[in-house]
């Protein structure tokens, strides 16, 4: 009981000193920390505790990649591929290509050509992840029907596309948000098809949603001729001023090949417009289409809405062009940002949104602090009232326990949330449990007639197994809470879990040392509790 | 200095005699909880029910509830719950899930902002779409179930199976009564309530483990006593600690309840309730289970002989 290696005492003291160093910056203002960081050597960590959005204020948005829109885009691409194949193979279709929710149906006019069409279309199906991916599964199920060929997207292909869409969305959103100049925005994947966006300090999400909520898919489509087959044209709304316009479904050129877009001004009218530039491939395609269709109106379509449909006066072969559309300056620059950042591969919908203003955040911090101070004070007083000098030892251990929770949160970069503060307050009550177990056991042993030293020793030894058992159960609950909980609840799990670990260190190890030192100095003949 | 003792010294209460009262009582309360859950239900917050909730503060310092209500209900967003929170200036508005999928929620937020932004500061906006809320229900339920299984597996390894069964029943009891508590008080049930429930499960098992640990120890020592006598002796021995810990945790939670702000009030209330229930069940529900399952001190005979010699020195008549 009385003997413990000096290095143990030294390491506990070192631990406390390190914890103090870790925690101190969190109580200084951000400016002071920055100023200090310039002067102290870099091995001293000057990190502040990360406050959750519920405490510092900000916006949290969970967006979901719309699987249906991913599938729709795939079906459209498939339709274009199939049309090209049939043209190349010079196979006549009857009634064009029918698009279905998960695939397309090609009806072949001449039954004799059906086999040829089937073998041609089989080549449309690719191994998932590209030809080099080592092929487990293909993108399409291709089968012959009574009067044609049926192509259906496989589940694996859809899942693969959704996965791609999520990673691509994150890249695009990062570019957009950076262009907006919002600082410290966190964009991360969550689950299979979700993207989480956290913007500290932001309160009104309207503007953010405008920028991130748009797909910004730019298409150039020819305006329909009266002679076009009805299932190859579609009627789209105009973006401004109401009205609709009928265009060919076939997308001649799309925004994928854009390399740049800038807000500029129309040379004649002086109105804001957007100047774009294609890469080589896009420039060639654009040049070819405009050469072949001089004199026809060419619709510029953004997210299914027609911005404008100017007539092609002469072939545009330089790879650059302008989009005009009665824009305000703001609209033109937003459009330029969106085009520059690229289109989202799928529609994103906001499935969860939480914003906290700085006022409420500060109130929560204040309330949390007050509860923690008062809770700690009550426990401290109660422990001293019950256990006297031993209560003071337990209270010292409790202080170190709270210090260690904060220090480990700083070290791990864990986020402190309001439920996290609640977790800390709860562990203030729980941390002394180990002390209580030990002290009550010491009392019992003393009542059995043991000497002071032997009672102290037996108390610590016998209570230890119980302390481990009871803390393991609590820790498991915290762990599960962390794994299954989301957002703010995780904050609670973190502080609860850390609190359990630190409470064992402080309540068992530290208290034992203090009691040993106390006994060596005073040699009491009676247990003081 | 005279030290404070809440528990009297050297108690010899016949706790096990109370099982004839505590079992019917707990059974009744559990059944009532289940019935309440089925027929009255909990007051699910937007985390689980979906919907939109905004916390606004009047710029003038005084909110006009009636005005807000008329204005909000005129927006065509279905029923609007208007509730004063904290000070005179703070009001909570809550809307149900709007039709029109995820987009519908967004439109609702925009409408609320438009209607109230000029006179009120938007302190927080929470909107949970139908797809997320159902997932939160699933992960919440799964979390509670997995936590219980994990902890019980640990207990099963650490103790004899009868002890684990006693712990399961005690934990279920606490869980049901906490659910009942939410039904009766109609406190908002949200994600932090799941945290509260899991913490109560943890605390309940913690209490149970402390009692069971002692029962096992006493059983090894006094082989001739009846199970009821052994349990009574153990519960009496750990009683000061039980009361002491329940009190410290209670004091901390009390501070949280009164000072922690309205955001975590339902959490603190549930926890306070849970502390009482868990303390009660560890003594009156879990421990008597050992009697019903016929646990005898000879269950340890195979396991350890050395413990007996170690304990022999301490045995008193």
- Superfamily (CATH H level) name of the largest domain in chain B: Multidrug efflux transporter AcrB transmembrane domain
Strand order of the largest sheet of chain A: 7-8-2-18
The CATH class of the largest domain in chain B: Mainly Alpha
Shape of chain A: elongated
Number of domains of chain B: 2
- CATH class placement of the largest domain in chain A: Mainly Alpha
Largest interface pair? A-B, 81 and 83 residues
CATH superfamily of the largest domain in chain A: Multidrug efflux transporter AcrB transmembrane domain
Work out the strand percent of chain B: 5-15%
Sheet with the most strands: spatial strand order of chain B: 3-4-2-5
Under the CATH scheme, the architecture of the largest domain in chain A is Up-down Bundle
Question: What do we call the CATH topology of the largest domain in chain A?
Answer: Multidrug efflux transporter AcrB transmembrane fold
Largest sheet geometry of chain B? 4 strands, antiparallel
Q: What structural category do the secondary elements of chain B indicate? A: alpha+beta
Radius of gyration of chain A: 34 Å
Strand content of chain A: 15-25%
Shape, per Cα inertia axes of chain B: elongated
């Amino acid at each position: 009981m009385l003997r413990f290696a000096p290095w143990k005492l030294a390491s506990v003291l070192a631990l406390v000193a390190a914890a103090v160093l870790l925690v101190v910056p969190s109580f200084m203002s951000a400016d002071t920390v920055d100023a200090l960081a310039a002067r102290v050597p870099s091995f001293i960590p000057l990190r502040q505790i990360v406050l959750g959005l519920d405490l510092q204020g900000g916006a949290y948005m969970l967006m979901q990649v719309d699987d249906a829109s991913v599938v729709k885009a795939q079906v459209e691409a498939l339709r274009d591929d199939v049309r090209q194949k049939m043209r190349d193979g010079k196979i006549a279709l009857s009634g064009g290509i029918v698009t279905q929710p998960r695939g397309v149906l090609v009806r072949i006019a001449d039954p004799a050509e059906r086999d040829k069409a089937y073998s041609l279309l089989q080549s449309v199906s690719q191994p998932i992840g590209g030809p080099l991916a080592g092929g487990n599964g293909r993108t399409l199920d291709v089968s012959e029907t009574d009067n044609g060929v049926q192509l259906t997207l496989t589940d694996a292909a859809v899942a693969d596309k959704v996965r791609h869409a999520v990673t691509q969305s994150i890249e695009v959103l990062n570019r957009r948000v950076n262009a907006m100049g919002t600082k410290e925005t966190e964009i991360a994947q969550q689950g299979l098809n979700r993207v989480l966006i956290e913007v500290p300090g932001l309160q009104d999400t309207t503007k953010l949603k405008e920028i991130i909520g748009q797909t910004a898919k730019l298409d150039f489509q020819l305006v329909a001729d009266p002679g076009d087959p009805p299932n190859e044209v579609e009627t789209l709304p105009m973006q401004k001023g109401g009205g609709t316009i009928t265009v060919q479904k076939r997308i001649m050129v799309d925004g994928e090949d854009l390399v740049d877009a800038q807000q500029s001004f129309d040379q004649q009218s002086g109105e804001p417009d957007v100047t774009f530039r294609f890469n080589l491939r896009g420039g060639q395609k654009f040049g070819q289409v405009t050469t072949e269709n001089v004199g026809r109106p060419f619709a510029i379509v953004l997210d299914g809405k027609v911005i404008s449909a100017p007539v092609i006066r002469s072939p545009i072969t330089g790879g650059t062009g302008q989009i005009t559309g009665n824009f305000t300056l703001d609209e033109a620059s937003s459009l330029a940002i969106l085009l520059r950042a690229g289109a989202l591969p799928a529609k994103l919908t906001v499935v969860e949104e939480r914003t906290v203003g700085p006022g409420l955040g500060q109130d929560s911090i204040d309330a949390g602090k007050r509860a923690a101070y008062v809770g700690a004070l009550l426990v401290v007083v109660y422990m001293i009232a019950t256990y006297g000098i031993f209560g003071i030892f337990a209270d010292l251990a409790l202080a170190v326990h709270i210090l260690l929770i904060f220090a480990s949160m700083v070290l791990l970069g864990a986020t402190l949330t309001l439920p996290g503060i609640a977790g800390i307050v709860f562990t203030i009550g729980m941390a002394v449990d180990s002390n209580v177990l030990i002290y009550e056991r010491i009392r019992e042993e003393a009542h059995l007639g043991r000497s002071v030293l032997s009672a102290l020793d037996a108390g610590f030894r016998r209570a230890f197994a119980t302390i481990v058992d009871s803390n393991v159960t609590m820790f498991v609950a915290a762990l599960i809470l962390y794994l299954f909980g989301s957002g703010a609840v995780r904050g609670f799990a973190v502080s609860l879990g850390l609190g359990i670990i630190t409470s064992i260190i402080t309540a068992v190890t530290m208290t034992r040392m203090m009691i040993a030192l106390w006994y060596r100095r005073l040699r009491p003949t009676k247990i003081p509790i | 200095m005279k030290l404070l003792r809440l528990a009297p010294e050297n108690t010899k209460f016949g706790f096990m005699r109370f099982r004839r009262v505590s079992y019917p009582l707990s059974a009744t309360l559990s059944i009532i909880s289940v019935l309440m859950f089925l027929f009255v239900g909990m007051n699910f917050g937007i985390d689980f029910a979906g919907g939109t909730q905004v916390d606004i503060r009047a710029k003038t310092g005084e909110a006009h509830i009636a005005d807000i209500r008329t204005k909000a209900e005129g927006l065509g967003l279905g029923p609007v719950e208007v509730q004063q929170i904290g000070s005179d200036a703070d009001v909570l508005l809550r809307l149900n899930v709007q039709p029109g999928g995820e987009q519908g929620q967004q439109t609702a937020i925009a409408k609320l902002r438009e209607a109230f932004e000029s006179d009120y500061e938007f302190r927080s906006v929470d909107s949970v779409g139908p797809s997320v809320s159902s997932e939160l229900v699933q992960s919440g339920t799964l979390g509670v179930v997995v936590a219980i299984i994990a902890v019980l597996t640990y207990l099963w390894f650490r103790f004899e199976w009868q002890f684990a069964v006693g712990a399961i029943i005690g934990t279920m009891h606490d869980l049901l009564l906490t659910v009942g508590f939410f039904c009766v008080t109609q406190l908002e049930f949200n994600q932090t309530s799941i945290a509260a429930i899991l913490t109560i499960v943890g605390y309940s098992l913690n209490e149970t483990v402390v009692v069971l640990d002692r029962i096992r120890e006493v059983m090894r020592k006094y082989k001739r006593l009846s199970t009821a006598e052994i349990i009574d002796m153990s519960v009496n021995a750990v009683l000061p600690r039980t009361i002491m810990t329940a009190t410290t945790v209670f004091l901390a939670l009390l501070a949280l309840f009164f000072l922690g702000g309205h955001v975590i009030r339902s959490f603190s209330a549930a926890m306070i309730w849970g502390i009482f229930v868990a303390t009660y069940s560890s003594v009156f529900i879990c421990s008597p289970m050992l009697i019903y399952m016929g646990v005898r001190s000879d269950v340890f005979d195979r396991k350890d002989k050395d413990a007996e010699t170690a304990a022999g020195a301490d045995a008193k008549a």
